């Protein structure tokens, strides 16, 4: 992982266009190729980013850019969509690289772990006639909670959350991009399963072709709650 604190301006072009004017920011270039642009406040989320699969290429600043003080330009391009993040660097204040090694992954809390276990035992809630392939199905960026095959043998990747938000949808999207490259699995569809799914997360999931399933935790444990298991 490379951490750079720099005075920079950032432009995103592709499905949408966005501009970050000149300011001091943290640039995080991760081992998976992704680039995240952070400020020092406002949110834990990056101001802008490019998720994998993508590649970073340095560019020589143009004459006008160099005259304005740009010393370095980074272009990060998404390999599938062609979307691009272009970073104009005016000054590098800090630059360091670190080997983080393999991360063991997030340890789920009791309810979330129970939801995953119960859903693995009740995969018909995902698709009637489905069978479980494996829990914690491994990928290069972490394990998918459940890998399932439907009654026709098609692969379904399932991400299980207690509360489903946009970050969970983004996580499942990254898994689907990787799994879709495996000829033994492709095409892979996604299911986002949670006790509660926020409206913004549902909209994003449906826009990406991911099906949402709301889980009745009490009902799955065999306790009648009066709430339908699926919505």
TrEMBL record:
<dbReference type="GO" id="GO:0004519">
    <property type="term" value="F:endonuclease activity"/>
</dbReference>
<feature type="domain" description="Endonuclease NucS N-terminal PH-like">
    <location>
        <begin position="2"/>
        <end position="104"/>
    </location>
</feature>
<dbReference type="InterPro" id="IPR049173">
    <property type="entry name" value="NucS_N_sf"/>
</dbReference>
<keyword id="KW-0540">Nuclease</keyword>
<dbReference type="InterPro" id="IPR011856">
    <property type="entry name" value="tRNA_endonuc-like_dom_sf"/>
</dbReference>
<feature type="domain" description="Endonuclease NucS C-terminal">
    <location>
        <begin position="111"/>
        <end position="228"/>
    </location>
</feature>
<dbReference type="Pfam" id="PF01939">
    <property type="entry name" value="NucS_C"/>
</dbReference>
<keyword id="KW-0963">Cytoplasm</keyword>
<keyword id="KW-0238">DNA-binding</keyword>
<dbReference type="InterPro" id="IPR002793">
    <property type="entry name" value="Endonuclease_NucS"/>
</dbReference>
<comment type="function">
    <text>Cleaves both 3' and 5' ssDNA extremities of branched DNA structures.</text>
</comment>
<keyword id="KW-0378">Hydrolase</keyword>
<dbReference type="InterPro" id="IPR048302">
    <property type="entry name" value="NucS_N"/>
</dbReference>
<dbReference type="Pfam" id="PF21003">
    <property type="entry name" value="NucS_N"/>
</dbReference>
<protein>
    <recommendedName>
        <fullName>Endonuclease NucS</fullName>
        <ecNumber>3.1.-.-</ecNumber>
    </recommendedName>
</protein>
<dbReference type="InterPro" id="IPR048301">
    <property type="entry name" value="NucS_C"/>
</dbReference>
<keyword id="KW-0255">Endonuclease</keyword>
<comment type="similarity">
    <text>Belongs to the NucS endonuclease family.</text>
</comment>
